[in-house]
Protein 1
Amino acid sequence: MSKPIKILIDEMDDGWDEKLRKMGYDAYSVKKLRTEGHKLRTDYSVINYARENDMILITRDSESGQACQENNLPFILLDNEEIFKIVIDKLNLIK
């Protein structure tokens, strides 16, 4: 049996954790974890927390994405390039 996917939502998208939990995902928010007393002020701390807890980091921070990539850590980068692909896909549906 595969273990459930654990997700860490970076600060900019706080609230996605709640939406993902409603969809059945095991999701956590950096912002909420911080208010619970976790020391997650730096990119390094956030990435390290995700690694230690076997989580996928969802972030808009390209430096965090690069750090995850360099260290073979799972991540989803929501950068402008990814957002642009979504816009193009939606425009193609309108054609």
Protein 2
Amino acid sequence: MFFFPLSIIVIILFVAGILVTATVKILREYERAVVFTLGRFEKVKGPGLILMIPFVQEMVRVDLRIRVIEIPTQDVISHDNVSMKVDAVVYFNVVDPERAIIRVQSYLPATNMLAQTTLRAVLGQHELDEMLSERKKLSTDVQSILDAQTETWGIKVSNVEIRTVELTENMVRAIAKQAEAERDRRAKIIHAEAEFQASQTLVNAAQILASVPAAMQLRYLQTLTEIGAEQNSTIIFPMPIDIIKPFLDLIETSRAAPVPGDIPSLSLVREEPSGT
């Protein structure tokens, strides 16, 4: 009976394990295998159990799940020459494993670098006020540009979120002063509009009271009633000029009329004799 040495058996088992490992591959549900045969692309396999030809075929695993990459803080100069620091987050996933492996050397750092460049380019075209008030719109613009450029790589950029916009202390103080001035301006405008509406209402009320003379007297009586209810010791009540105007006219007429019995004054004129 022929017996193999133990070392040979161990070597055979070791080689068999390597062959089995190189031949049988198991892919998860979210993974795909880009298979190359002698260096040429064959097809995309998976998920589940796939068989490979050892030393002839090789595969590259591709994760199809959505990935999140953080864009490092970027120094951005806005359209109105304001320096700031901006960072963002990019959400993307591979939709075409073949192009993601063949078209670009390493799609993850390539997408990260492209996102940094696009973020600086897009934000540099807008002013500071737009960055602070329209952050969602700017994120959508960056996402659409990134998605269009990475489409040839088989990558889908689903979302971009601009997280923080950091300003210098001088710029923060300037923005605070601007906001304070804006609030003062709005307060003055609201006060002026209130004065205009009040004056317009008073004009309308005066027109209504002037059309009916008795209404003015009733209004005076109502005012006296309101003042009397407060139990004040001193009452200051304005009297309209229209009431005392007839008395003033009568006084002026009596002053202008001559008093009976008065002798009109005579002016004496001295005439110089004319020379002969």
Protein 3
Amino acid sequence: MIEKNDILKILEKKEIKYTIYEHEPFYTVEDSNKKRSKMKGAHTKNLFLKNKKNQFVLFSCDENSVVDLKNFSKSIGLKNLSFAKPEYLLEFLGIKPGSVSPFGLLNDLGNNVEFYLEEELENSADINFHPLINTSTIGLKTKDFISFMIENKKKINIYSLSQNRLVKVYE
């Protein structure tokens, strides 16, 4: 399983500029708002979801976005999505609750988890995610994050919450 230091080494090898912030654990958006000091860029919340057919979704959206799971599920053709149990998070992404991050998709070698990124985040200049542990945050250019995920064979579905639909796909 890939861990924080592995991600940092990969980013450095690919010459992707990033900033690493070390901090107290952030378990919630509220924790992040209180403790993050002056991290620039978009801040995210990451929802790890599952339906009864064992289809998994990771949705990264702006920390202030309101997500109606019923509408989101219906619009992407996966009915009845709800929060997945922690054991699935560990099995597929190699992380624990509170540390959910799209960097965990690097541990999903079978590409079992569909990744959705909110359009508002795609349009931000900089973005922040935990590097698989909630005591650190990596800040990097959003375009670099997207390129990095594509290079690592991770499909990115760009989803508009305001339009309630998929607007673009990167493969």
